[in-house]
Amino acid sequence: MPDLPALSITGLTKRYPGPPPIMAVDGLDLEVRPGEIFALLGPNGAGKTTTVGVSTTRVRPTAGMVQVGGLDVVRDPAGVKRRIGVVTQYNTLDRSCTVRENLYYHCRYFGYSGPDARRRSDELLAQFKLTDRGEGMAATLSGGLAQRVQIARAIAHRPGMLFLDEPTAGLDPQSRLALWELVTGLRAEGITVLLTTHYMEEADRLSDRVAIIDHGRVLVTGTPAELKRGIGAETVIEVHVERPGAEFRQVVSALSSVREAQPMATGLRVLAHSREGLLPRLVEAALPYGLRDIAVHEPTLETVFIQLTGRELRD
Amino acid sequence: MTDVRPADQPPEGTPSRPGRAKALPWGAPSPGPRAGYLPVLWGMALRDLRVLRRNFAPFATRTVMNPLLFVFVFTYVFPRIGQTFQPGPIGVSYATIVVPGLVAVGMVFTGISAVALPLSLELGGTREIEDRVLAPVPVELVAIEKLVVGALQGVIGGLVVFPLVYFVPATPVSIHVASWPLLLVVVLLAGLTAGALGLMLGTIVRPQQIGLMFAVVVVPITFLGCVYYPWALLHSIPWLQGLVLLNPLVYMSEGLRAALTPDLPHMHPVAFLSALALATAVLGTIGVRAFVRRTLS
Predict the structure, then answer these.
(1) Which of A6, A59, A113 faces B26 most closely, judged by CB atoms?
(2) Are A187 and A272 part of one and the same domain?
(3) Do residues A274 and A235 make contact, with C-beta atoms less than 8 angstroms apart?
(4) What are phi and psi of B156, to 5 degrees?
(5) How far is B167 from chain A (nearest CA, A)?
(6) How far away is chain B from the Cα of A185, in angstroms, using its nearest Cα?
(7) Which of A186, A207, A227 is the last residue of a domain?
(8) Residue A29 shares a structural domain with residue A156
(9) Contact residues on chain A for B137, CB-CB shorter than 8 A
């Protein structure tokens, strides 16, 4: 069987007429494979939500083509909607209804009969550990719980693909962990997941593959490990000094096993092939410039983003 | 309505199958047990009626308050304290004159409070509408579902008001239905007009402007809707008699007047029936278009 991509985006452009006119997505290409968890990682305003909006038929593309499971989002929106589940950035639960009714009526919107919809709602309440919340009004749920109900609702009609737009934005750390577990669990059901996030840790922990996007374009795609390996450095050392400057950068760049020294406001971010013996030499080099702090960590997706754009993810 | 494609719709009772016969290598293609648009829209209607049932007390209170106080003061208190309106040469009680109009107001008011208010919030504030926008039907149909359920709620609103305006007045109310088919058609079209008006207002009025909407739209159309006087009696103020023809409530009042109090002066049925059909079409089209504009960018 030919391996039809779950989601295929070619040359997607979305320009909002404004004023002021905004080029939200600018020639974006992307392919999500069946069964994978795919993360779109980028800062706010990178075009993630617009990309999800077009893929879920709610935003009309200016140019380009988007297909979900081979169906064109512009030509057959109803067919696409039948095959996808969507959790948007906002809590869109039906506040006039109970949690159970949110699930029940969602199933009805997808053509389930009354008894089938009831059975499926019960099943979802149990699966998402919401049984004792079923009769509560959706309006009264906390952020973490509401998000759990939204995901349960989004997969109620057994879609092949689930879109999660910034699923953990605004959640407390505990709810975030619970949600990550839940998303990972969806893999077992064979659901393809596309999630957007500006938390590099979320992309790293959850996804099989990541596309880093900025200014409406994909900068790089790969597994988190591949992307981090692509930096060509084993260690990242951040050196904070009182008097950073070109001279300090020159001195550090000359040290052996330093691959690159990127300027930061308060010092340098040093990408190094190995940290063997480097740390003492770095400390020694930094002392004349007023060493204040030094931090060592492995490369992260944030490092990748900085190397690609020269900016931090959360500017 | 460009995207409505009834051809896609399998006949009722067709065994379940996805809209397109393409097998997908991932997941199960996921129409419910039954495909087609009708079950989807039926599901949305069930949801709206469930919410109506849950909120029936506030719904009914909002609907009856205005007509109840009106008939109480003008047709119960006034006659007892020696104040009366002279209905002119018609020779019936004032209470009889206002019955059709107040029922029409009940319908319009319901169309606004049950459709426009929640819709304005769902579109502009909470984005709750998303779940229905993402249901597997063209977005236009989601708007039309709101209109149709709004019509039904409008009819319920009218039915809630009727016993009040019939039983509260101190003076006799004389109602007789000369033609049940006419009444049925008028109620149906008046309901649709109320639903269409609710849809239009709900899609174009932002939540912050709801108070303004009542002042600028609801109050004028009520007072200038031939509710408290038959349209024919306006002949002594020709410019007003012409101007109020822009108000859809006029045709609802006059239609109900023709059906419930046929002996009072009223417009010709061809006039109010075609005006109601036209109002539904115009308001509905504006509403559906605005709904699409608000939900798709």
Answers:
(1) A6
(2) no
(3) yes
(4) -60, -40
(5) 34
(6) 15
(7) A227
(8) yes
(9) 78
Q: What is the pLDDT along chain A (315 residues), one digit of tens a residue?
A: 457 899 999 999 999 987 888 899 899 999 999 989 999 998 888 899 999 999 999 999 999 999 999 899 999 999 899 999 999 888 899 999 999 999 999 999 998 989 999 999 999 999 888 999 989 999 888 888 899 999 999 999 999 999 999 988 888 888 888 889 888 888 888 899 999 998 888 888 889 999 999 999 999 999 988 888 888 788 888 999 988 888 888 888 888 888 888 888 888 888 888 777 888 888 888 888 888 999 988 888 888 888 888 777 665
Domain count, chain A: 2
The CA–CA distances, whole Å, from A103 to A86, B77, B229, B288 equal: 14, 51, 49, 26
Same domain for A290 and A149: no
All residues of chain A having their beta carbon less than 8 Å from the beta carbon of residue B4 are: none
Residue A310 placed within a domain: no
A191 in any annotated domain: yes
Q: How many CB atoms lie within 10 A of CB A53?
A: 23
Do A153 and A275 share a structural domain? Answer: no
- Does residue A188 share a domain with residue A151? yes
Q: What is residue B232's DSSP assignment?
A: G
- Its domain, for residue A270, covers 232-298
Please check whether residues A151 and A187 belong to one and the same domain. Answer: yes
Distance CA A10, CA B176 (A): 68
Instruction: Label residue A291 exposed, middle or buried (CB < 10 Å: 0-12, 13-18, 19+).
Output: middle
Which residues of B are less than 8 Å from A153 in CB distance? 131
Alpha-carbon gap: B53 to the closest alpha carbon of chain A (Å): 11
Pairing relation of β-strands A235-241 and A291-297?
Answer: antiparallel
Same domain for A88 and A237? Answer: no
Predicted TM-score (pTM) of this structure: 0.84
Q: CB-hemisphere CA count at 13 Å for A162?
A: 29
Instruction: Evaluate whether ipTM surpasses 0.90.
Output: no
Are B46 and A56 a contacting pair at CB < 8 A? no
Q: Exposure of B43 by Cβ count < 10 A (0-12 exposed, 13-18 middle, 19+ buried)?
A: buried
Check if the beta carbon of residue A152 is closer than 8 Å to that of residue A103: yes
Q: Specify the 3-state DSSP secondary structure of B188.
A: helix
Q: List the single residue in A82, A105, A190 with the smallest CB-CB distance to B30.
A: A82
Is there a single domain that holds both residue A62 and residue A201? yes
